[in-house]
Prior knowledge:
The protein has 85 residues and is an all-alpha fold. The protein folds into 2 domains: 1-35, no CATH class; 38-85, no CATH class. It is built from 2 helices and no strands.
Amino acid sequence: MVREGLAYAVLPPSVCADAVVARSVAGRPVIAPELSRVQAIVWPRDRSFAPAAAEVRNVIRRILAEQLYDNRLHGRLIGTTYKKR
């Protein structure tokens, strides 16, 4: 719809970078207001996981924590203080 001139969209750069580079759409950063998003890993508390599913969840949590700690990912873990760069 954006490419056809029918709409605007607010998207993360990773979604539209190729189209912006190819000049099939125009892209501009949103400076104000500052945008943020919440992403979460969720699972039902009332059911147990199969061992393989539990391990996948644990690996994802570990990778995200490492990336946050190393500043490769911006955000925070629940219960921690957000530090702006």
